[in-house]
Specification:
Length: 144
């Protein structure tokens, strides 16, 4: 028997219209976005089409690798802006879920994958939202 909750759409818990970045977005701008926002994952788009994901961890990793010994955050971002681009740090072709997918399907993908966010796309692969492991935990807390 299929549990009735298995039919709830992922669009019920996703963050709609998430902040996105482009391949030409400077690394320093990504750092600023993460610093100002309350999220840890940014979809990378070409026009409206999703082409990758950048996580806060990706930024921390490259910051550490590229700036060993540099203390000033602005100096670190300046170095990164001149040595790296979004294409070199993003996860290309990330695992996604269609906007017609269910919360259950999203939970299965997040539980079996090595990632903590799942872009929600339409049939044209345009970003519509993002669902994270935290969104799923919040959903479970409300349900129980």
């Amino acid at each position: 028997m299929v549990h009735p909750k298995h039919h709830e759409l992922v669009t019920q818990i996703m963050t709609k219209n998430p902040t996105t970045i482009h391949l030409k977005t400077p690394i320093s701008e990504v750092g600023k976005i993460f610093g100002e926002g309350k999220f840890h994952h940014l979809p990378v788009v070409n026009g409206k089409e999703l082409i990758g994901m950048v996580s806060y961890f990706d930024l921390i990793r490259v910051s550490f690798e590229q700036s060993f010994g540099v203390i000033d955050e602005r100096a670190v971002y300046s170095v990164l802006d001149h040595t790296l681009d979004i294409d070199s740090i993003m996860t290309k072709d990330p695992e996604c879920i269609q906007d017609t997918g269910t919360i259950y399907e999203a939970a299965k993908k997040l539980a079996t994958g090595s990632f903590h966010s799942l872009p929600v796309v339409n049939s044209n692969h345009e970003i519509k939202g993002i669902v994270t492991s935290k969104d799923l935990i919040d959903y479970l807390v409300k349900m129980y």
